[in-house]
Amino acid sequence: MTVKNVTDKLLENWPAKIVCLSLALLLFMFYRMSTLEQRVFSVPVRIQTNGELVPAASYPRTVTVRLRGETDILYPIEERDISVFFDLTNLEREGEFRIPLQVQIAGPTGENAVLEATVEPAEISMRVENRTVKKVPVTPSFTGYPEAGYEFDGYLINPVSVEVSGPRTMVDNIDEMLTEPIDLSGRNAGFEGSALLVNRSPLITVSSGGTVEYRVRITNTIITRTFTDVPVSFDSLDPRFEVADIVEPGSLTVRGRQIDLAEINVPEGALRVNARTIVASGVYSLPVTAVLPEGFETIEYTPREIQIYVARKKE
Length: 315
Prior knowledge:
By secondary structure, this protein is mostly beta strands.
């Protein structure tokens, strides 16, 4: 058979032959696709940005990725090998856009490997705004009360201010950063520690790692208390003499720690008269002094002076 005869034979009914060949290829591909395995992953979403424009509204933090492929190619793939991201680097202005999600799969899958990847959702609607940075003060938040007899007396915090960065409208609305509640319940001494800053939006970034150090002062509660019916005592009175009058009790206002003042009654011997100078019977006007234990402060007392009649004791 000559070459011409072979060529004529091959070209005979060539449209039908092409159709048959195409159908065969389609059947082969359909069969191959129908035998592919499928795996589903939940993958975090990353952002690619030039730093000028950033998302201004919440967006899905994870998406579903479906992979279909041959078993020996598909099953070695792990979640960490899959990267899903959307790209903002080509945007030039603020606004709302529909942005496709892109998938990258790391690892050697081979040039001829059959691997199909789909993302759900395939694209997202996103508003973007210019990125803004602002410094704001840190305000600590406290809860509870110290132990009875003690009180909160102030705090130190470091740093006193932080930088917040993010979409323009969100940053403009931030005037301070609060800490998580610092519990004072049952405290009877100063203490220190660290606290997280309350950041309610994942779109906002806070400097200092979002934490601050604090030192809280807890001191004794200082109160004043007034005692009435405080007896007046006479010191160093010559035993040959006695006070012939009925001496009215006085009053005394004392300042001190609450826990100490709560435990005492009328201070015994708190109002005193020095009678050392009395050497004969008669009427005397003598000053009264207040004498208190260490840790107490006299605010006011009465009487300041007392008039008494002193008589010699009967033998």
